[in-house]
């Protein structure tokens, strides 16, 4: 598995290098030219889950007012929040913006259900394209002018995906670590997928879909917690192409509390594994796409990135290597224990040059998170208890801005359960014991790594990572 992951990373690096050298930009691969005001494009619908900043960004889009509908999809159950969002929509409507506020009386299907309901309104049925943004995403005014041409001039393109730009990446060490992981995803996985296969996973936000392609693929489905990836795979199996624009960035916020990040990573790891289980036979039997593309989707996109990567990181680096200190007869070759992991890490880190000095912290952080990702992966494959768990990823900015006046919430009494994470603490004790044993009786000097990793597990087990906001 480590070799599989290594080959995948090297392939990504080589492919991206060739893409840059050959200048395979989307503007060169697909028809593209600036759209003029007199070109008839039809209407564009905007499903949004928003409040002030997001609604303001949507309403500030530069696009003919008679060809756009801004749709605010609010799934909140708090009457106060509902009222605030509706008032904000009315304020923009009074300025002549074609904006619609939609609130459901249930949360069936979560995000997929909200998007599906939004598309079924009569005023949305005549639209040709739909741009989707999550609550904390703020597109620039020229977003549509830079994305719609790829759809309008290339009838086989279904999706145009923009890159994420993090407004709070420097908020704490945890957000810096997230930035490093996501930068690799956007710089390598999305870029190579778009240029080489015209396929990649839809990120669920900051993208524009051709509604005809969306409908042909079967629309939004809530059978997994990754409705965005589900739709992308189904659309790809119908022969549609995707375009990724790495130079088009949309501002958003990273989760800055460890609790929120854990929930997000559970969903992002469990959902793909569960979708893989549900679609593996459908992908294999599909006759509309090439064998090469099916191999890419099944092996590279799903198996290596969504399953192998998590299992290798946790089982090999946090279980197998530490356990070998008790069995001196077992010796892991240096290429497996040192060289390959180092090369994989360096390739991952290239995407965020400004954070190279944090590389050791990133390795330790990712190894701790691999515990939850591996657990979530097996839950998805086995369809166990939390397979369909959906917890909205809370952002600290949301908590601060949702209160009238923008004041930070008052600190309340501390509850020990809010901060203690048992699994991390157990792993920390295990690794600490392995380190002590290796220091006393070992000969491979693993204790240097094991002590550092044990400290990382204990620190995160006590909740000393990210921003901590006490519960009311």
Which key phrases capture this entry?
seven-stranded mixed sheet; single chain; 2 domains; 472 residues; 11% strand; alpha/beta; Spore Coat Polysaccharide Biosynthesis Protein SpsA, Chain A; 53% helix
3D structure, described in words:
It is built from 16 helices and seven strands. It has 472 residues and is α/β, with parallel strands linked by helices. The model is unreliable at 38-50 and 398-412 (pLDDT under 50). It folds into two domains: 2-249, Spore Coat Polysaccharide Biosynthesis Protein SpsA, Chain A, CATH 3.90.550.10; 300-461, no CATH class. It is globular and about 75 Å long.
Task: Chart the SSEs and their pairings.
Layout: H1 2-21, H2 26-29, E1 43-48, H3 52-59, E2 68-74, H4 79-93, E3 99-103, H5 110-119, E4 127-132, H6 143-153, E5 157-166, H7 173-197, E6 207-210, H8 211-216, H9 227-237, E7 241-252, H10 258-285, H11 291-323, H12 334-349, H13 359-382, H14 396-401, H15 422-441, H16 447-461
Parallel strand pairs: 1-2, 1-4, 2-3, 5-7
Antiparallel strand pairs: 4-6, 5-6
Helix pairs in contact: 1-7, 1-11, 1-12, 3-4, 10-11, 10-13, 11-13, 11-15, 13-16, 15-16
Q: Write out the strand line-up for the largest beta sheet, numbering strands in chain order.
A: 3-2-1-4-6-5-7
**Relative strand content:** 5-15%
Can you identify the CATH class of the largest domain? Alpha Beta
Q: Judging from the principal axes of the Cα atoms, what is the shape?
A: globular
> Under CATH, the topology of the largest domain is which?
Spore Coat Polysaccharide Biosynthesis Protein SpsA, Chain A
Coarse structural class: alpha/beta
Count of distinct structural domains:
2
């Amino acid at each position: 598995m480590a070799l599989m992951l290594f080959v995948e990373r090297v392939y990504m690096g080589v492919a991206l290098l060739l893409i840059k050298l050959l200048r395979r930009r989307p503007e060169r691969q697909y028809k593209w030219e600036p759209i003029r005001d007199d070109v008839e494009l039809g209407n564009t619908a905007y499903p949004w889950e928003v409040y002030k900043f997001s609604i303001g960004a949507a309403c500030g889009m530069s696009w003919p007012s008679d060809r756009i509908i801004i749709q605010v999809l609010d799934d909140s159950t708090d009457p106060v929040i509902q009222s605030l969002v509706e008032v904000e929509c009315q304020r923009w409507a009074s300025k002549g913006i074609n904006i619609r506020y939609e609130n459901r009386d249930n949360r069936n299907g979560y995000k997929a259900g909200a998007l599906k309901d939004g598309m079924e309104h009569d005023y949305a049925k005549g639209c040709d394209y739909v741009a989707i943004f999550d609550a904390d995403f703020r597109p620039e005014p020229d977003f549509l002018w830079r994305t719609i041409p790829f759809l309008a001039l290339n009838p086989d393109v279904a999706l145009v995906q923009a890159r994420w730009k993090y407004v709070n990446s420097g908020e704490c060490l945890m957000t810096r670590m997230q930035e490093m992981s996501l930068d690799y995803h956007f710089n390598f996985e999305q870029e190579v997928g778009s240029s080489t296969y015209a396929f990649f996973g839809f990120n669920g936000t900051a993208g524009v879909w051709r509604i005809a392609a969306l409908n042909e693929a079967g629309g939004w489905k809530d059978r997994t917690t990754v409705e965005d990836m589900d739709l992308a795979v189904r659309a790809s199996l119908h022969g549609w192409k995707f375009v990724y624009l790495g130079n088009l960035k949309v501002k958003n916020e990273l989760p800055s509390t460890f609790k929120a990040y854990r929930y997000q990573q559970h969903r992002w790891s469990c959902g793909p594994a569960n979708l893989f289980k549900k679609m593996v036979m459908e992908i294999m039997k599909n006759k509309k796409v090439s064998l090469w593309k099916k191999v890419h989707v099944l092996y590279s996109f799903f198996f290596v990135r969504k399953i192998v990567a998590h299992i290798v990181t946790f089982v090999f680096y946090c279980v197998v290597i530490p356990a070998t200190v008790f069995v001196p007869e077992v010796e892991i070759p240096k290429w497996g224990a040192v060289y390959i992991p180092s090369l994989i890490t360096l390739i991952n880190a290239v995407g965020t040059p400004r954070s190279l000095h944090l590389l050791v912290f990133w390795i330790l952080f990712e190894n701790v998170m691999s515990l939850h990702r591996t657990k979530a992966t097996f839950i998805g494959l086995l369809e166990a208890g939390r397979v369909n768990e959906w917890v909205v990823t809370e952002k600290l900015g949301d908590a601060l801005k949702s209160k009238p006046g923008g004041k930070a919430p008052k600190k309340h009494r501390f509850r020990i359960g809010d901060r203690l994470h048992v699994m991390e603490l157990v792993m920390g004790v295990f690794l600490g014991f392995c380190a002590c044993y290796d220091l006393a009786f070992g000969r491979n000097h693993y204790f240097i790594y094991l002590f550092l990793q044990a400290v990382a597990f204990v620190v995160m087990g006590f909740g000393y990572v990210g921003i901590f906001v006490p519960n009311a």
